[in-house]
Amino acid sequence: MFFALTDDQQAFATTVREFLADRFDLDAVRGVVEDPHGDGHPVSLWKGLADQGALAVLVPEEHDGLGLGLLDAQVVARELGRGVAPGPWTATVLAAEALRLAGSPEQQAAWLPGLAAGETIGTVALRGEAGSWDGRGITVDASGQNDGVSRLSGTASPVDYPSVAGLIVVAATDPSGTPGLFLVESGASGLAIRDQETYDGTARVGAVELADTPAEPLGGGTLSGAAAVAALMARGAVLTAADLVGVAREALTRTVDYDRERKQFGVPVGSFQAIKHTMADLHVAVTMAEHAVLFAAHAVDTEDPGVDVAVAVAKAKAADAAWAATGAMIQFFGGIGFTWEHEAHFFYKRARRRAPLFGSADEHRARLAALTMD
Amino acid sequence: MAPVDLSYTAEEEQFREELRTWLAANIPDEWTQPGFWRALDDDESFRLRRDWEASKTAAGFSGIEWPTEYGGRGGTPGMKALYDEEMVRARAPQTVNVLGLTFLAPTIMAIGTPDQKAEIIGPMLRNEVIWCQGFSEPGAGSDLAAVATRGVRDGDDYVVNGQKIWTTNAMHGDKIFTIVRTEPGSERHKGLSMMLIDMDQPGVEARPLKQMSGASEFGEVFFTDARVPAKDCLGEIGAGWRTAMLLLSFERGASGVGQYTEFRRQYDEIVAEARRFGRSDDPVARQKLANCLVELECLRYHAMHILTQVEQGRDLGSESSMTKLQWSETFQDLWEAFDDVLGPEASLARPRPDVDLTPFQHQAMWSRSVTIWGGSSQVQRNIVAERVLGLPR
Ligand SMILES: Cc1cc2nc3c(=O)[nH]c(=O)nc-3n(C[C@H](O)[C@H](O)[C@H](O)COP(=O)(O)OP(=O)(O)OC[C@H]3O[C@@H](n4cnc5c(N)ncnc54)[C@H](O)[C@@H]3O)c2cc1C
């Protein structure tokens, strides 16, 4: 039995964490937050992550990647969440995963080395307004193929970092009603990116509007059709959960540190049981969410028979924990926690925005009910 | 180092097989039927379980992780986890000597005298001596250092006067490990001793207390000039607080595997009732139950985490408080969900002539106790906040 991070995985986490602390601290994050019309994609941060192999984790070695698993990738996601780091990391990693899982050898050779090196930015567009995250929420239609090219029409939203992406992996439904994944390159005809303002200044999002846009179907890989879409959703859910867990842990740590020092009524406010017990419950919740993410990543990597339950548990638990921990951060910093100058809102807003991505806690609980009650 | 690996060793798997085979051959079918145990009278149930457990010991399936010199199996932490899981799976009878086995035995192995080691552990394993835990008093519950039961030296003995309460198995106990104030006038953590007192003597009287569930699993123990030889002190005289803390630390080995296995089965049983009563399609009920499942699965992962820490030889520190909070609060939530989901039917013993919900209701009632004993949830939260997070006292 070994249910923990290996020394290598811990070292990887430390590297990313120290890099962020040195080179992209909360002041740098603030720079991105306070420039809402900028592209939200600091090049120094991106290069640094690429140098550490953070973009190459899941890419096979034959395509210049590290050939590691989701277990390793979630280590990075957690640290990025902890540092509330901006940038299209999750988006790019997921685009690469789509290629690895569903792409032909040629498609992989064409795109994966660039994605692994950070030279190409990718993103995924998997559902449309008000749609669910289980493949039924796809709002883009694909025409039949002509010379290996399909035409896509419809709008996917919200999509992470579409404006800076060179490659967009779009989920679309073909005329027979079968979902599948398609590659759309930036600048393709009929492609319009509509930037959407979001309160979460640590990300940039937009709508991807497609009007008879030429797209290359992903095909010839291990997975295709609905299975490919589902596999991508599962990975998106795990990586988002990992990010949320990082956000939650950091929010909790900062709150505890503050409440140990902040005095009212002549004593540290952290000595009040109302605060202590909330913090204790949050510590348990965040720890459980950490376990759940670790297990879900392992389950995906090993195709564990319980993978569907594991992913739903991880996403539900992480979303709830992040929401609770970041809300508590504002509450237990008091007035200062409600100010723009304070960093609590970076954590709170990131948690709030990400919690519903790849399925909210409620949606994943509904899924768990379906898996165990029907 | 290999990444996450959830397998057990070949040796551990072989142990699992042997245990499974033994359990399959040695648990009568009727014992596993819902309601069987509660239909028996208390003494009869206790006697059956006491004898059965002794036969399990004779077969080599007790003291799994204890050294062989104490009659244990010398097994690995993984084997202990598998044991906990298989016992639940097989619906084996619950142990009758839980306080002795969990707390007293490891403490004796750690700090007992050679005589105590030789005389106490074997008979406990064979259920020849049933042990009670005499910590709580009317005035000393969460605040254990407020213990008032006193012992006064008289020749080679101590003479003990006072009262313990909420004593599990009080009516069946043969001996009781008891925190006694042996230094007159001492206060709080000082002047306490852990005395191993024979309950079969005129100075000790046990009275049952009826629990909210109707059962009488605990009781009161009154000491009136009860005698205990000074040599039957565990640890040094006056060092009782240290002994008590060591003793309670043995809760830490418990990973939660057994609890997960049991509660996960209860989840399925509750779902089956929800379906029977047409409530399994209700979206609110589904959310409630699914949230219990989320917490249950987290308990399972946490158990794997604890087992890993134990196998790596790490000190778990105050992590056991987290384990306790997670399992006890989840268990309670699960049984609240039972009532919520079933609605009015949940409160009826037989909502239909062929449906007996009393085993469920018994669990639901029992679930109210688990956040009190073994350190209440509030006390556990204090521990997590102060010792894990470092918040000021
Ligand atoms: C089924 C069952 C079996 C038991 N078996 C045994 C046994 O075999 N041997 C034995 O010695 N004892 C046993 N106990 C007793 C158990 O250990 C005590 O009930 C427990 O320690 C709580 O003490 P108390 O009942 O005096 O409650 P109190 O300590 O009076 O607590 C009352 C309430 O105050 C809260 N509280 C107390 N202190 C604090 C604090 N510092 N901060 C915040 N809240 C606080 C508690 O959480 C609780 O909610 C058993 C209890 C039960 C229910």
Keyword list:
heterodimer, A: alpha+beta, Butyryl-Coa Dehydrogenase, subunit A, domain 1, Butyryl-CoA Dehydrogenase, subunit A, domain 2, 3 domains, 7-stranded mixed sheet, globular, B: 393 residues, alpha+beta, Butyryl-CoA Dehydrogenase, subunit A, domain 3, 12 helices, 46% helix, binds flavin-adenine dinucleotide
Summarize the structure in words.
The complex is a heterodimer of chains A (374) and B (393). Chain A is an alpha+beta fold and 374 residues long. Helices cover 51% and strands 15% of the residues of chain A. Chain A has helices at residues 7-23, 26-33, 43-51, 70-82, 89-102, 105-117, 225-261, 273-302, 307-333, 344-354, 361-373; strands spanning 122-125, 140-142, 150-160, 167-173, 179-185, 191-196, 205-217, 263-264, 267-268. In chain A, helix 7 packs antiparallel against helix 10. In chain A, 57% of the residues are buried. With 393 residues, chain B is α+β, with helices and mostly antiparallel strands. In chain B, the strands form two sheets. A four-stranded mixed sheet of chain B has the order 1-4-5-8. A four-stranded antiparallel sheet of chain B has the order 2-3-7-6, with no helix packed on it. Chain B is globular, with a radius of gyration of 22 Å. Chains A and B meet through helix 1, helix 7, strand 9, helix 8 and helix 9 of A and helix 8, helix 9, helix 10 and helix 12 of B. The structure holds flavin-adenine dinucleotide (FAD).
User: If you consult CATH, what is the topology of the largest domain in chain B?
Assistant: Butyryl-CoA Dehydrogenase, subunit A, domain 3
For the terminal residues of chain A, how far apart are their CA atoms?
A: 32 Å
What are the secondary-structure elements of chain B, in order, as H or E? Answer: HHHHHHEEEEEEEEHHHHHH
What order do the SSEs of chain A take from the amino end to the carboxyl end, as H and E?
HHHHHHEEEEEEEHEEHHHH
Largest interface, and how many residues on either side? A-B, 48 and 53 residues
Number of helices of chain A: 11
Please state the overall shape of chain B, judged from the principal axes of the Cα atoms.
globular
Number of domains of chain B: 3
What is the SS-derived class of chain A?
alpha+beta
CATH fourth-tier homologous superfamily of the largest domain in chain A: Butyryl-CoA Dehydrogenase, subunit A, domain 3
Largest sheet of chain A: 7 strands, mixed
**Which strands sit side by side, in order, in the main sheet of chain B?**
1-4-5-8
Q: Give the CA-based shape of chain A.
A: globular
- Which structural class matches the secondary elements of chain B? alpha+beta
Helix content of chain B: 40-55%
